[in-house]
Write a structure and sequence with these properties.
Strand content: under 5%
Shape: globular
Number of helices: 1
Helix content: 10-25%
Radius of gyration: 15 Å
Number of domains: 1
Number of strands: 2
Largest sheet: 2 strands, antiparallel
Length: 100
């Protein structure tokens, strides 16, 4: 069974129709925030070096402004849940590894 992916604006949470790929200059129809930004990317994670899980990404100064990052992949709500589960699993593995 295929999960329906839901996409939301990083700024206002407005649900977006993602029938086409996000272009650099696209903006949210509700709040006019840029959409091709780090905070909308599935790789964005403030806990990682360069705030990005993609290790080949270039440094982006403003995470809320449109950028030219070639690694950008729009984050779905499913990706957020998966990243949280991966982080929890990694913390548990690290904790039990230290006990050995």
């Amino acid at each position: 069974m295929l999960e329906e992916k839901k996409f939301r604006c990083w700024s206002c949470g407005h649900e977006l129709d993602m029938a086409v790929k996000v272009q650099r200059r696209d903006s949210c129809p509700s709040c006019d925030a840029d959409l091709h930004v780090c905070k909308n990317c599935r790789f964005w994670d403030p806990g990682y070096h360069n705030e990005c899980r993609e290790n080949i990404a270039h440094f982006i100064r403003d995470r809320e402004k449109a950028n030219f990052c070639m690694s950008f992949e729009f984050k779905s709500e499913n990706d957020v849940d998966r990243n949280a589960a991966d982080d929890a699993r990694a913390r548990l593995e690290a904790m039990f590894k230290n006990l050995k």
